[in-house]
Amino acid sequence: MPFTPVLHAEWIKIRTLRPLVAALAAIFVTTTAFSAIAAADADGVDPLFSAFFGVGLGQIAAVAFGTTAVSAEFRGGALRLTLAAVPDRRRWFAAKTTAIALPVLAVGLLTGLATLAVGKAVLGTSGPAWGEGLRGALGCGLHLTLMALFAAGVAAVLRSGVTTLSVLIPFLLVVSFVVGDLSAGVADFLPDRAGQVALHSTWDGALGPWTGLAVTALWAGAALLAGARSIRRRDA
User: Fold this and answer.
1) Which residues contact 222 (CB under 8 A, 6 or more apart)?
2) CB 213 within 8 A of CB 189
3) How far apart are CA 208 and CA 200, in angstroms?
4) pLDDT tens by residue, 31-76
5) Distance in angstroms (rounded) separating the CA atoms of residues 117 and 146
6) What is the SS3 assignment for 45?
7) What are φ and ψ of residue 16, in 5° steps?
8) Looking at residue 86, what DSSP letter applies?
9) CA 78, CA 84: separation in Å to the nearest integer?
10) Could you tell me the CA-to-CA distances from 67 to 42, 43, 48, 147, 209 in Å, in that order?
11) How far is residue 84 from each of residues 6, 7, 81, 94, 236, measured CA to CA in Å?
């Protein structure tokens, strides 16, 4: 089967599953709401990060989206039916990850622009400049997309949404901050921290806005390669 109809089929799955639609909405609501709260209580040290503070929580919804989209295939023999229609497992997994990436990117960019507008309205003259803010909005969309893909790859390896979320959510909420407190240099290269460098006006670490996103992209790519290998070699 050609790639386009496979992608269309995967898109139908995503838009008809309520938890996935809810996760996309949660990306927007969580990010903008918590960014507005943080901007209202900003100390003026980093206006860009104050405006985009909520991305750190919005990425949890992105992780939930990527995890659920893949793990749903491992319930009730759904993957066997899918592979009966699309025997080429690599083509199917490429379509699945594309169907995950595109809506998250669209929602992420919309979220970034809305968050920037809210942040500038709340911060006023102390807010980020438009040029810097647009970089943050783009970084917001890219980071959320990469985190969703990272989660999708991990879910393909673990084959369980519960297990994947049980690993990734504590990692995002606890482990990353503990490592950051113990060794800032190591924490800079964690997937959730590296991508968020683009949301800072200034950064003292080794990474810049685009190199940080590149590091997160490497994490996502490695997870997807591991997921594709697992899909290819293990029974449905």
Assistant:
1) 153
2) no
3) 9
4) 999 999 988 887 767 889 989 999 999 999 999 999 999 999 998 8
5) 23
6) coil
7) -100, -5
8) -
9) 10
10) 33, 35, 29, 10, 26
11) 12, 16, 5, 16, 10
